[in-house]
Design a protein that fits this description.
heterodimer, A: about 290 residues, Pyruvate Kinase, Chain: A, domain 1, 5 helices, B: alpha+beta, ATP Synthase, domain 1, Single alpha-helices involved in coiled-coils or other helix-helix interfaces, 2 domains, five-stranded mixed β-sheet, five-stranded antiparallel β-sheet, 10 strands, about 30% helix
């Protein structure tokens, strides 16, 4: 008969195996989502690049001033912080929240009224609990970017910028470097900085015909450009999220495997010890006869 | 001089089309714009409508319904950046016609000015889809 310790160990091994199955499934789901989101991000890049190029050309060739380009002395600042809605993705959220928290604190210290625009439940909860001003939050984006979200977030930011609620809007999000690496990035969104649009343009200096005219083109292009930028940012952040989840779930699966191995070893040892002591009992009993 | 030029159509979802063409007709804000090879550099706003690309002298054409966006022409490359792009084979004619009917109905009922603008754009899109699918 196996001892009570063996029974207990068997129970633990079963429970760890169950957990491992769950983490394995989650890893697979994250991998599938990562692939889809990454595909979407890559497919969207040509459009974003062309739009930026056009913007650069228009800015370099015209004196048109759009209110969205207006640089005001910063008295009120908004931080858009993109995190995930769900956990189980390792240090992903903390990697964003930490630099964001620091940036917000610095901004407050320098005498600027600062608010947070939280995208993702984790970030919203974090800043809400600590009593920061939350301008708005979205907790239902579900890790899949679409252009409606880009429009919603972009229009909210633009609206708050135009009516003077905020003089500057910045975005803190995890940029997607590779499946293993995501880098937190803090970049300005509004006002649109013409010099921030890096990269050289081929067509610069060409004598374009503008149809209907530059002012009207600007009016159509600016909102489109901004929405697309927000969309691209979201898309990248969500790609990072799935990547982080996949890596952390894969690590969890591995850890569970190691734990199972260690526990199995221990169980076998105890079982053997029990058998040995029983044998000794029997032999001892036989000798006594 | 080159007789054909390159056409690239990109949407936020994907690169919808890439290929050579002899001529292109693109819906500008103020009316259709015709483009041939060696066109002067141009940037124009695109309204929802029908894009027609002439593929060869035999009269083979490609028709696409596009959404709002821009077109940029330089060095025999036409870059179309539009919200949506559907080729004739992708369009369900019956559905497109129904949408057109709906859009027409809504426009005649419409009172408020802002909604009217939206309905007008919807009508334009619906019309373009039907025309692209039917080849007129």
């Amino acid at each position: 008969m196996a001892g009570a310790g063996v029974k207990l160990l068997n129970k633990r091994i079963r429970s760890v195996k169950n957990t491992q199955q769950i983490t394995k499934a989650m890893k697979m789901v994250a991998a599938a989502k990562l692939q889809r989101q990454q595909g979407q991000m890559l497919a969207a890049r040509p459009y974003a690049r062309k739009l930026t190029e056009l913007m650069q050309q228009l800015v370099s060739q015209t004196e048109v001033m759009d209110p969205l380009f207006e640089v005001r002395p910063v008295q009120k600042r908004l931080f858009v912080v993109i995190t995930s809605d769900k956990g189980l993705c390792g240090s992903y959220n903390m990697n964003i929240i930490k630099p964001a928290h620091k940036a917000v604190d610095q901004s407050i210290e320098s005498g600027v009224e600062t608010a947070v625009y939280a995208i993702g439940r984790k970030g919203a909860e974090y800043f809400r609990k600590r009593g920061y001003t939350i301008h708005a939050s979205h907790e239902d984006f579900g890790g899949e970017a679409n252009s409606t979200q880009g429009k919603t977030v972009g229009d909210t930011a633009v609206g708050a910028f135009l009516d003077g609620t905020f003089d500057e809007v910045r975005v803190v999000y995890p940029s997607f470097v590779s499946t293993m690496t995501q880098m937190p990035v803090d970049q300005p969104l509004l006002p649109i900085a013409p010099e921030a649009m890096e990269g050289d343009t081929e067509g610069a200096g060409l004598d374009y015909i503008w149809e209907p005219n530059q002012e009207e083109l600007f009016g159509v292009l600016v909102p489109l450009y901004l929405r697309n930028r927000v969309f691209m940012t979201l898309s990248e952040a969500f790609t990072s999220e799935h990547a982080a989840r996949m890596t952390s779930m894969s690590a969890a699966t591995e850890n569970a495997g190691e734990l199972i191995e260690a526990l199995t070893l221990q169980r076998n040892r105890e079982r053997q010890a029990a058998i040995t002591s029983e044998l000794l009992d029997i032999v001892g009993g036989a000798n006594a006869l | 001089m080159a007789r054909t030029f390159k056409v690239v159509i990109v949407t936020p979802e994907k690169t919808a089309y890439e290929g050579e063409s002899i001529s292109a007709v693109i819906p500008g804000l103020a009316g259709y714009i015709g483009i041939w090879a060696n066109h002067a550099p141009l940037v124009a706003a695109v309204a929802p409508g029908l894009v027609t690309l002439k593929k060869d002298d035999a009269g083979n054409e490609l028709r696409m319904a596009v959404g709002t966006g821009f077109v940029e022409v330089s060095d025999n490359v036409v870059n179309l950046m539009v919200e949506t792009c559907e080729t004739d084979s992708e369009i369900d004619v019956a559905r497109a016609e129904k949408a057109l009917e709906r859009a027409r109905g809504r426009l005649t009922d419409m009172q408020a000015e802002i909604d009217r603008e939206r309905a007008r754009l919807a009508l334009q899109r619906a019309e373009a889809r039907v025309r692209a699918a039917k080849g007129k």
